Amino acid sequence: MVTLKPRMRLAAVGVAFALAAATPVAAYAALDDEPASAASAASAVSRGKPYVETRLFFGTQRPDGGPPVTDKQFMAFVDEEVTPSFPSGLTIQDGRGQWRDRNGTIERERSYELILLYPVSEAREHDPQIERIRDAYERRYAQESVARADDATRVDF
User: Fold this and answer.
1) What string of DSSP letters covers 70-89?
2) pLDDT tens for residues 55-85?
3) Residue of 4, 6, 18, 20 lying closest to 96 (CA atoms)
C-alpha cells in the first residue's frame, strides 16, 4: 500500500480535480455498502461505526486576477456556510495544490482542505448541504469549482 504525504495527496487529488469538476458525484448509493477491505478490517477489530468522509478542496487564487482569498475570509466562510450544517465538527488543513483550468493552464495555488465526517445514515441529508457549500464558495470567490472526494470509513469518537 502506498501512503502519500498530505501535500502529495493534495497534488494527486488536484489531477482528478478537473475531471471531478465536470462530473457529478454519484457515490452515495455505494456508500451504503461497506467496501470489502473495510468489512474485513471491521471484523478483525470491531471499532467505530460506518461513516462518510467528505473532503472539499478550496483554491484561493481568483481567475479574474483579484487578490487571493485570505485566511480571515476563508474562516468567515466556514463560520457562515459550513458550521451551521456541520456543528458537530470539521477539520481544516492548509495545502498547496495544482490543477489544469478550463483554458488548459496549470494553476498552482495555496488551498484549504475541509474534512467532514458524518454517519452513513446521514449521507442523503448532507449531500445537498455540501453542494450548497461548494456553490457558495464558487460564487463568492469567483472559482471555477471546488473539488469533492467522498469515501466510506469507520469512525470512533
Assistant:
1) PHHHHHHHIIIIITTT-TT-
2) 999 999 988 788 999 999 999 999 999 999 9
3) 6
